[in-house]
C-alpha cells in the first residue's frame, strides 16, 4: 500500500510516465538496494571472520578499511 501511495504521489507530479513504468523503476531501485545490502553483509561477515582469525577488533579493522582506504572513498 505504501508503494502505491508513493507512486501515486510521483504520478501527480510527473504525469507523463505510466504507473507500470513507475513500478518498474521502483522495483529496479529496490532490487539494486537489496543486492547492495547483501554485498555489504558479505563484506561484514568476511571482516568479522578475519578479525577472529587475527584476533583483532572488528571496529578497528572497519575503521581502517573505510577511513584509510582511498578506493572505498
Q: What is the helix fraction of residues, given as a range?
A: over 70%
Element pattern in H and E: HHH
How many DSSP E strands?
0
State the domain count.
Answer: 1
| C-alpha-based Rg, rounded | 20 Å
Assembly state (oligomeric): single chain
- Main beta-sheet strand count, sense and barrel state: none
Q: Helix count, per DSSP?
A: 3
Shape: elongated
Low-confidence parts, pLDDT < 50 over ≥5 residues?
none
Distance between the termini: 37 Å
Query: What proportion strand?
Result: under 5%
Structural class: mainly alpha
Mean pLDDT: 78
Give a concise summary.
The chain has 73 residues and is mainly alpha-helical. It has helices at 2-13, 19-53, 58-67.
What can you see in these coordinates?
It is elongated, with a radius of gyration of 20 Å. The protein has one domain (2-67). It starts with a helix and ends in a 6-residue tail after the last helix. It is mainly α. The mean pLDDT is 78. It has helices spanning 2-13, 19-53, 58-67. It is built from three helices and no strands.
Q: How do the strands and helices of this protein lay out in sequence?
A:
Elements: H1 2-13, H2 19-53, H3 58-67
Features of this protein?
elongated; mainly alpha
Amino acid at each position: 500500500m505504501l508503494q502505491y501511495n508513493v507512486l501515486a504521489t510521483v504520478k501527480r507530479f510527473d504525469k507523463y510516465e505510466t504507473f507500470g513504468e513507475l513500478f518498474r523503476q521502483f522495483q529496479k531501485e529496490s532490487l539494486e538496494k537489496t543486492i547492495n545490502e547483501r554485498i555489504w553483509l558479505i563484506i561484514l561477515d568476511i571482516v568479522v571472520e578475519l578479525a577472529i582469525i587475527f584476533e583483532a577488533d572488528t571496529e578497528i579493522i572497519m575503521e581502517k578499511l573505510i577511513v584509510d582506504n582511498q578506493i572505498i572513498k
